[in-house]
Design goal:
The two termini are 23 Å apart. This protein has one domain. By secondary structure, it is of the alpha+beta class. A hairpin with a 3-residue loop joins strand 2 and strand 3. It is built from 1 helix and 4 strands, in the order ββββα.
Length: 83
């Protein structure tokens, strides 16, 4: 699908980040926080929550931080599509 239309298929709360000499870093999920989208027709689109100056593009190598307020809204959208 086009970059702009890419959907969120799951999410979890980050418990921590560990340095990994081979891959750079590893993100650790908080146990029990994972959500998996089951309703793909109503799955939220990532770029509705985050924007960057160059437009939607994944291959920038960025770790995209979302402010807590936006992360909560995104999480609620994923919950709705996970039912």
């Amino acid at each position: 699908m086009p970059e702009r239309e890419r959907i969120i298929i799951g999410c979890y709360e980050i418990a921590g980040i560990e340095l990994d000499e081979q891959d750079g870093f590893m993100v650790l999920p908080r146990e029990g926080s994972g959500l998996r989208v089951t309703d793909f027709q109503n799955a939220p689109r990532y770029w509705d929550f985050y924007s960057q100056k160059s437009g939607p593009r994944w291959n920038t190598g960025l770790f995209r931080y979302l402010p807590d307020r936006i992360a909560r809204v995104m999480n609620e959208a994923v919950k709705k599509a996970a039912r």
